Give the backbone structure.
Amino acid sequence: MLFLAANDPTDHVTDVVLLKTVGGTPILTMHMVTIAVVTIVFVAAMMKAAKAIATGPESEGNERYITKGRFAQLIEAMVIYLRDQMLVPVLGEAHTRRYLPYLLTLFFFILFNNLFGLVPVLDITHLVFGHDAPTWFGGTATANIMVTSALALLSLLLIQIHGFRELGFKGWVVHQTGGLIRERWYIWPVMLIVVPVELVGHFIKPIALAIRLFANMFAGHTLMAVLLGFGATAAKGGMGAWGVGGISLISGTAAVVITFLELFIAVLQAFIFMFLTAVFISLMSHHDEEHEHEEAEAGREPALEAARG
Amino acid sequence: MPLLLAAEEAVEHGVEHVGVMDANWLPAVTALVVFLIAFGFLYVKVWPQIVKGLDDRQRKIRQEIDTAEDAREQAKAALAEYERELASARDEANQMIARAKIGAQAAAQELRSRNEAELAELKQRAAREIESAKRSAISELHAEAATLAADIATKILQREISAEDQQRLIDDSLRELTSARHR
């Protein structure tokens, strides 16, 4: 029934203009408000969790090491898993320590926005105030390509800053050649292909991050709207009560199943965005081709020594 | 003022949606600003607390494990030491018992030997005393017999005796001799 008035299922996912200039330029949209509200909730929740996770005063004895509260324990388990099982193997101890605040903020920021998108605020608003009522708050901000692009831009900047910091300008340039510049001159023409691919790759990676998150959230919510809209469409089409009821039951059941899938995808996509950012950072730290080159050099010398000996 | 609140307009003319791929920069800028503010706040206030809490706990757990491991090693060493001392004490006790047995046997042997020697000496002394008493008795008997013989001879020499006298004298002498022996 929530979707009864909707003709386009994407209406439940797309952004809504709240304020605009006389000329018609939007100046405030629903996703802007949603991001701000969800972030306030997110920061408050993390502060509460941090207080519970932090070591208490010595007067508490061994109790001070115990995390109190299920939410804080959940956050703690996630942080430990992400840090020790996912990030340290990819980035190493030192880089994990350096980038952990950014990566965790990114993960939880996306996660909170994804999960908030599962709360049917818009539909409840429409149900209570009618479909034409202004909806100031609701929706999934991470189903907005501009929002995910902004986050991807930050990751791009971080990856590149890390690259220059680790490799230096010269090392960064060498990295763009895939290490071929250190090979024999007749290999160099290959750089005509490698360098553009590497350069474009710097942008493709964050673009892929942005599109992946946006597409997953957008598609999931659109699918839900489509499933729940089947009954309304049948009713509009003049189908009888039994037909509408049967279709609604089947599509409603499917929507419940998809909701669980959405819940999983909300966590998975937050993780993927964060984890791939970490992987891209690590790629700018390690030069496999250079290591291979060094190893080859190191291996060649003993071989030569042996041949001479 | 070129800006106009559009909410009422939206109510009047329906909700205006932004296209899926429309380049509306406002949400992007908002996301950037809000994210950076949140990141700055969390960077200062939240993540250090959480990371420190986790590190403290990890350190505490490691410390407790190390302490428990040390205690276990100490207990193991103490047990080994105790067992070694127990074995040593048991050996010593066995040796003491063995020594005591040997000592007791030696003492018993010595006592038996001494008793046997004393017994033998007593026997010898008794035999010697018996022999001495026997010799003394014989010599007294001899002396008595000589005295008696001398008395008889004296009597014979002082008078002539008849056959009856002679018989009587012999009987007297024998009687005296017998009584002397019984004395």
Q: What stands out?
A: The helical segments of chain B are 7-13, 25-158, 163-182. The beta strands of chain B are 3-4. The longest helix of chain B spans residues 25-158.
